[in-house]
Amino acid sequence: MSTNATVENLVPIFIMGKRYEVPETFTIMKAMEHTGYKFLRGCGCRGGVCGACSAVYRKAGDYHIRSGLACQTVVEPDMYLAQLPFYPALRQVYDYATTEAAAAAVFALYPELFRCVACNACTKICPMEVQVMDYVAALKRGDILQAAEQSFDCIQCGLCASRCMGELPQYHIAQVARRLAGGKLKPRAQHLADMLAAIQTGRFGDALADLRRADKDRLRTLYEQRELEPEMTGEEWRPQATVGL
Amino acid sequence: MPYPQQLKDLMKQVAATRAQRVAQKQSGWHFPFLSLDQRKEMLNHHPDFREEGRREVRVGPSKGYRVAHEIVDLLEARSRVDPDRLDLARVALETDVLIIGGGGAGTSAALLAQEQGASVVVATKLRHGDANTMMAEGGIQAATKGEKDSPYFHYLDVMGGGHFTNEPELVHTLVTQAPSAIAWLEALGCNFTKSPAGRLATIHGGGTSRKRMHYAADITGAEIMRTIRDEARNRGRDITLLEFSPAVELVLDERGHCVGAVLYNLETEEYFLVRAKAVILATGVCGRLHIQGFMTTNHYGATADGVVLGYRAGVPICFLHTVQYHPTGIVFPEQAEGILITEKFRGSGANLCNVDGEQFVNEREPRDVEAAAIIRECSVKGKGVPTPSGKAGIWLDSPMIELLAGEGTVKREFPGKYILLKRFGIDISQEPMLIFPTLHYQNGGLEYTSECTTKVPGLYVAGEVGGGVHGANRLMGNSLLDIIVFGRIAGENAGAYAKQAARPGALTLDHVRRYHQELASAGVGAERIAPMLLPDYTPPDVRGRQLTAQYQGTLR
Ligand SMILES: Cc1cc2nc3c(=O)[nH]c(=O)nc-3n(C[C@H](O)[C@H](O)[C@H](O)COP(=O)(O)OP(=O)(O)OC[C@H]3O[C@@H](n4cnc5c(N)ncnc54)[C@H](O)[C@@H]3O)c2cc1C
């Protein structure tokens, strides 16, 4: 499982300033577990998407502060590191149903947007390479769609907020932008609405009832006879049989 | 770790056959699918069919059922709390509906219960959203394109994928509610990938007859989770979130109705009681039990707690003898071990190749068949690719996608995985990935109805902790669907029940006492406690030196 690596080269790392030796191929997370740390906080999906394990570090003789997800970042010799599993940031409550998808609504919720001094510290620290300052700028211009697009890979770890001179909760603001874009600015899917209506009027009731009554053998036959939509076709493909449609 | 020279050399075999395989694909030829009979034969190589991997559970409502040792170990175990030491008169919190688990199912349930006018408490083990839901990449199924698809075809696909063992009633609910689940998410502001005119993009998944997998780039689960979590936070007046507070036991009343749970504050190590009129179990899965030593894709808290809690309270288990191994988990580099490579790579055309660069299975077989074929290729056939740490893997030929769909496609369509492997010095648009099946999904679980009720009145089940809808094998994209559909139903029904139900009677933990007696008379489990809560990755030598640390199971 996770810590059964063949004993290999050990390298020194400094966890909150204290020296440990760990296998050189380990991630920060596995290295910390290897030394005996047991995570309560600072560990979530272990797959790089949940934002629980953000770590900050610097390298020997280098003043630059770097960041990474502990579950994704491989240790380096003489790395000085700490985790930042939580960072306070004000999140505003809003009523999604009645919030207008307009710049003014975002400004009203988060007037601190305009405290951004465009220092770019947020973008530099982002472990997901999200262009944080750029989406903040887009929002200041009132471009919600652009901000939604540019913040899409955000994992809401909060490192941006931890570095912000203007004390913005960037990732909370971006969440509002994405929801307004997804539900209010982009057009709704008409085919989806049509399907809902079809189901409501009971269009598939008989066909489904027939399947419910079918014994295993008949189900098998129907299954094997399914017409398969070819992989390389576009939206224009139509099946030949109309049963079940 | 970039690929070492030894692997770079082996990789040449894949590159050598690539042009031909691409040409075949473009001409419409595909590696033959197995017939239903051949599938059956192939499944003998699946871990579920290793008898030595499981044993009978000797206590509880499904006594005699053979499931994985790792699960039996938890079912045959004592409670974390001593029923005689916990003061049931001291209730810390009262609510209408208590939801255990803050993943996709639990959060959907919270929103719907709140809409019934119920007060809601969500107790979750880590942070809200630290859950498998957050990790789902590939997509969510629903028949939304009426000109070529309908719930009828979705039903057939689900049943066929599950080898016709699924509970028909649950499947019927799943496929007929699917479009409204998507519409609900769309209306909440979830950014599914769509055309400028609003038409949702859909692709195939393993075992689908129509392209009905909807997605949000390659982070579908995260986009769903952060959207509904944001909405739950907006309703914070009625929905209280308790993080780092896993449930360790359900509480019943003297009539046997479920009326709350014992929670454990992981940080302060206190146990405390929440009293509720209805309880929903939405705790997800078991990947971190590492069944049969397999690596896993699952999040840190996936330790099957809900199954343990529900089972002790009297809910039978079903389909738990089947576990889904995702065919394609990273096996090298080792730091990324177990991490899922979405089926979408295969859906976009990437072949699976053995050490000689040959195809040996169609890349769109159902997951269990695909995984069994990979395991067979590496074991019986000896055609696996040896990794530096002594394991074996199979090539997933991602560079094919660039040739099929144009340069830059891999980076554009799979930004998450592209960046991840780039960090290790591997460019998956140029070099294939090395994969092996990884423990991914719990097909079975607690028995529940299409109304999300269970044998225990007042106790509801939603999401992956339940079993039946996917039968013996789930198809990709149907579980994100499952958690939204059944999460909403559970929330609605539990909310309504809580508003109508008479005030519950006196709290008891007698079912725990009875369970302990049953364990004692069967002579099992005295040395173990459950639920596990968190896995233990402390190396044995370190653990041996932790002389002053007290262990309660895997926690110290
Ligand atoms: C890597 C990955 C990729 C996937 N990709 C897809 C996909 O593309 N399409 C698809 O349909 N499905 C996919 N799945 C499956 C799907 O994501 C899950 O089946 C689904 O999200 C489960 O949702 P859930 O709400 O039931 O459980 P989870 O989302 O896991 O939530 C359960 C929650 O309960 C908490 N919990 C556990 N124990 C306790 C306790 N004792 N007390 C309190 N809280 C507790 C957990 O910490 C967690 O927060 C994927 C799964 C993984 C792991």
Low-confidence stretches of chain B: none
Per CATH, the superfamily of the largest domain in chain B is FAD/NAD(P)-binding domain
* Domain count of chain B: 2
* Distinct compounds present: flavin-adenine dinucleotide
Q: End-to-end span of chain A in angstroms?
A: 47 Å
The count of DSSP E runs of length 2 or more, i.e. the number of strands of chain B, is 23
Distance between the termini of chain B: 33 Å
Structural class based on helices, strands and sheet pairing of chain B: alpha/beta
Assigned CATH class of the largest domain in chain B = Alpha Beta
The geometry of chain B reads as globular
Number of DSSP helices of chain B? 17
Question: Helix coverage percent of residues of chain B?
Answer: 25-40%
Percent range of helical residues of chain A: 25-40%
Strand content of chain A: 5-15%
CATH architecture annotation name of the largest domain in chain B? 3-Layer(bba) Sandwich
Determine the CATH superfamily of the domain at 96-185 in chain A: Alpha-helical ferredoxin
Count the beta strands of chain A: 5
Strand order of the largest sheet of chain A: 2-1-5-3-4
In terms of structural class, how would the helical and strand content of chain A be classed? alpha+beta
Largest sheet of chain B: 8 strands, mixed
